[in-house]
Specification:
heterodimer, A: 138 residues, alpha/beta, 4 helices, globular, B: 307 residues, Rossmann fold, 2 domains, five-stranded parallel beta sheet
């Protein structure tokens, strides 16, 4: 582990209303963060079904990050609370599939939190670089 | 005359009973069928009746019916021989299609299984692994379709007589056969009130109904707090009547018909659905086995890495 040449691939789901705008802000502010993420814009973090997360991880993605609005700020009132409930189920299932819990993260990033988005991505990339490649990637 | 060969691999034999259970449909089918090989009914040896041959041999047939998953080297050779000799292969039962109950063993390594069976259980006098005249185990349980090409798959534990009759009739008449892409809930007649559940009951507790009550008046078992796999399970077990079998017996669905679509993972679907309607997912005991009871192969059961 800790192979310096290993570049993790992190799939990121950003909600349309807060986190995607947050990621956009990080971009237009020219904040530096690792290029290891691939962002998929979704309407709400609550619409990211565990199937998508587990599916991505068992197909060999090194990590999955879901970003949503802060609790209480959801455009759809409680979509992010649903995401939180599902995240709990996802963490349990990661154990079942023999994956490290750290490969999945749910973070709240608002539209004004460009620096926070960059920080979350940097943190997660470093953490997964430590963990090494996904065991399913054979 | 259609020649039929039937073979059982790693299975209990329940699906063979289903074939015999066809009832009157069997009487219509029988004159058109000739069984040339069927270990459960007839004494037909693989290496010639007196063991004079050197290679495993199954007579040629038009239709080959296989039940059971592939656990041992012997299962594998028999399946391959069936494929060579039969024009059409029908895999019947959850074991043949998804590994079935034997595939729960895929959660453990071969060494763990041998240790448990021959040494570790309380009532066992420790002994060494048997080595004489037993076929070696494969590295895990495989479904038949992972090893050979399967033309028609009939799921279910056991599969239903209606499906067997339907598949055989379709073959005889040259019609295509397909399974519905609906969930058990789509066929289920019970009353849904769409309220969230917060507490799970054990399957041993009694489902709330009074004798003689119509299914349309009984509350959905899941809403009553019983873990029912209907939402993530393929429909079709109810036959013409369309009331799912387990529901008819006042038991929640256990998922023997497997995923609704090829490639779906019922455990992930169920966990996602249950957690978004407010149930604490930690309440579900032994998730891997509960949701993969019959479908270990497609549910990707595998030994847990030590952590």
């Amino acid at each position: 582990m800790g192979d310096a040449s290993f570049e993790p691939l992190i799939l990121t789901f950003c909600c349309n209303w807060c986190s995607y705008a947050g990621a956009d802000l990080a971009g237009v502010s020219r904040l530096q963060y690792p290029p290891n993420i691939r962002i998929i814009r979704v309407m709400c973090s609550g619409m990211v079904h565990p199937n998508l997360v587990i599916g991505a991880l068992t197909k060999g993605v090194d990590g999955v990050l879901i970003c949503g609005c802060h609790p209480g700020d959801c455009h759809y009132l409680e979509g992010n609370l649903k995401a939180e409930k599902r995240a709990e189920a996802i963490r349990l299932m990661l154990q079942d599939f023999g994956l490290e819990e750290e490969r999945f993260r749910l973070e709240w990033v608002s539209a004004s939190e460009g620096p926070r988005f960059a920080q979350v991505v940097t943190e997660m990339t470093e953490q997964i670089r430590e963990l090494g490649p996904n065991p399913y990637k054979t | 005359m259609v020649r039929v060969a039937e073979e059982w691999l790693s299975t209990c034999g329940g699906c063979e009973v289903t074939i015999l259970d066809l009832g009157e449909a069997l009487l219509d089918l029988l004159p058109k069928l000739e069984f040339v090989h069927m270990p459960v009914l007839m004494d037909h040896k693989y290496y010639g009746q007196t063991g004079e041959k050197t290679a495993l041999e199954i007579p040629e047939a038009d239709v080959g019916i296989i039940s059971g998953g592939i656990r041992t080297e012997e299962n594998k050779q028999v399946a391959e021989e069936m494929r060579k000799k039969c024009k059409t292969i029908i895999a019947i039962g959850s074991c043949a299609n998804f590994g079935g109950v034997p595939a729960l063993a895929n959660m453990y390594t071969i060494d763990q299984i041998f240790d448990k069976v021959y040494r570790e259980t309380k009532s066992t006098d420790p002994a060494s692994n048997p080595t004489v005249e037993v076929p070696p185990l494969g590295d895990r349980v495989y479904s038949v379709s992972e090893v050979i090409k399967v033309d028609v798959g009939l799921p279910g534990c056991p599969t239903t007589p209606e499906l067997v009759a339907e598949a055989l009739t379709c073959l005889l008449e040259g019609r295509p056969f397909s399974l519905p892409e609906r969930s058990v809930c789509d066929d289920c007649p019970v009353k849904r009130e769409k309220k969230a559940i917060t507490n799970l009951k054990r399957p041993l507790e009694k489902v709330g109904f009074s004798p003689g009550q119509k299914f349309e008046e009984i509350r959905c078992y899941m809403e009553q707090g019983f873990l029912c796999q209907g939402p993530a399970t393929r429909a079709g077990c109810g036959g013409a009547e369309r009331v799912p079998r387990c529901i008819k017996a006042y038991m929640p669905c256990r998922g023997c018909f497997g995923p609704i679509r090829a490639g779906a993972n019922p455990m992930v679907d169920m966990m996602g659905a249950l957690s978004s309607i407010g149930l604490d997912p930690k309440q579900i005991e032994d998730r891997m086995a509960t949701f993969n009871r019959f479908i270990g192969v497609v549910g990707r059961l595998r030994p847990q890495p030590a952590r």
